[in-house]
Amino acid sequence: MKIGRNDSCPCGSGKKYKKCCIDKILNVKTSNQSKKCDCPNCGGKMNYVGSFPPTNNSHPFSAIGAIRPPRGKYFNKKINDLYLKGETLYYGRRETEALDYYLKVTNYLIDFAIKKNIKTFKKLDECGIIEELVGNIFQDFEIIILNSKERLKELLDYVDRLIVNFDMEDEDYLGTIRVKSDLLFKLKKHDDGEKIILDYLEDHPKATYAYIELIDNFRHAGNYKKAKYYYDKAMSIKDLEDKDVIEERMDDWYKEVWVW
What we know:
The protein is globular. α6 (170-186) runs antiparallel to α7 (190-203). Strands 1-2-3 form a three-stranded antiparallel sheet, with no helix packed on it. By secondary structure, the chain is mostly helical. Helices cover 52% and strands 3% of the residues. The chain is built from eleven helices and three strands; from the N terminus they run βββααααααααααα.
């Protein structure tokens, strides 16, 4: 199992993984033999792969692929195998080939959730369909979609199914609509792609990554005036978090294009 960017960091700091140890390299030897965990946090409900069992009150350093959820009542070997093949291609940087595997797996998960009237990733995890947290699967697939240049309408349909059928936490929802906005811009539907982010900003006016999505999408579309507008708007907001991430957008290439 991979730690999601928005999960609590396994080091125990209390921070989100993306703001803590995400860039740290963990030099821990691992093996392919799965063993049952006996830590007090999961009570033997999780498995781990590696040279040591998890300790403390969490599953530290599971980002190395040390822990996988156990098979449950609805474990599907065929779907699990498809996921593992796709995962191998994805981490081998063969995202174009991985796309079809992820699309089949994620659509199966959505269909299953609809059939069982499941509305959250957590409840879907409890079914034990795949030896991976479904949130991580959807998150990896988001990256594949963002790098895709083909099958855009098919991928947009998939994202719409995800939005309609799950009650997501704010950050998960923002990540999903960012993917939808990106796809709409690629399909030349700039107004629609802009609107879905602006609708989110009405309720979340300090959502840094919503502004980043608008800046990036308009830049890639060649509308530098609009990109500059959202950059200035974001930077003018008092106490906006992660402004340094927005400032990173102002590299030399931007300075050459924009008139200050």
